């Protein structure tokens, strides 16, 4: 596995940089489900020290990305499709709160940024560019979270989003980027318009899509 070493950003703690780097490897399946977590390998890959690395791994354990198994140590948690349905059930409630809050509280600049991210997702889907699509999806999450001004809701939803993103990478052949982009665009438009009901409905529609996609994976 070849991954460029990470240079800590000036305003980020080393543990945060380590977390972001390892999370990306897990989400994009560079570290596959069931793979062992080898500290020495991760130190070499990231170029970071053992202390920030261990702090990052503790956070991942609490978020459910990695698990401790007897005699096997830390491994990347398996993807369990059936469990994913209940994850989306929980995420649905939080996402509707975040969407309506963002519609109510977003600044004019953030409304423009949200709409731009949605448009980038639509464009990436039209061109079949998965990496660009996922980058725009992540950027949309970040700006909506900033706009909603509800850190408790954001903290609760982030681990769920991370698992959903990994699920998409694992089963992208079952997904429909065009439909996913359409749902995200409806959400973005509702927030940008300051329409709380439309934003909440957009979040609901997105969760409906994610649930139907998950059930398609389960049913083979």
From TrEMBL:
Keywords: DNA-binding, Transcription, Transcription regulation. InterPro entries: GntR_C (IPR011711), TF_FadR/GntR_C (IPR008920), Tscrpt_reg_HTH_GntR (IPR000524), WH-like_DNA-bd_sf (IPR036388), WH_DNA-bd_sf (IPR036390). It comes from the Bacteria. It holds the Pfam family GntR. Transmembrane segments: none annotated. Residues 12-79 form the HTH gntR-type domain. This is GntR family transcriptional regulator. It comes from Undibacterium danionis. The lineage of its organism: Bacteria, Pseudomonadati, Pseudomonadota, Betaproteobacteria, Burkholderiales.
């Amino acid at each position: 596995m070849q991954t460029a070493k990470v240079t800590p950003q000036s305003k980020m703690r080393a543990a945060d940089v380590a977390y972001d780097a390892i999370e990306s490897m897990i989400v994009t399946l560079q570290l596959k489900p069931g793979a062992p977590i080898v500290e020495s390998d991760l130190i070499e890959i990231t170029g970071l020290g053992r202390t920030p690395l261990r702090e990052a791994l503790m956070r991942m354990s609490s978020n459910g990305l990695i698990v401790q198994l007897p005699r096997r140590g830390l491994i990347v948690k398996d993807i369990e499709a059936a469990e994913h349905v209940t994850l989306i059930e929980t995420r649905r409630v939080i996402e509707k709160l975040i969407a309506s809050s963002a519609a109510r509280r977003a600044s004019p600049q953030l409304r423009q940024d949200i709409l731009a991210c949605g448009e980038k997702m639509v464009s990436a889907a039209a061109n079949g560019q998965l990496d660009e699509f996922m980058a725009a999806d992540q950027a949309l999450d970040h700006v909506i979270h900033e706009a909603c001004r509800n850190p408790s809701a954001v903290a609760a939803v982030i681990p769920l989003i991370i698992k959903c993103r990994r699920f998409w990478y694992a089963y992208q052949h079952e997904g429909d980027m065009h439909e996913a982009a359409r749902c995200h665009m409806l959400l973005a438009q509702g927030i940008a318009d300051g329409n709380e009901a439309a934003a909440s409905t957009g979040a609901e529609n997105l969760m409906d899509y994610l649930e139907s996609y998950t059930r398609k994976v389960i049913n083979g």
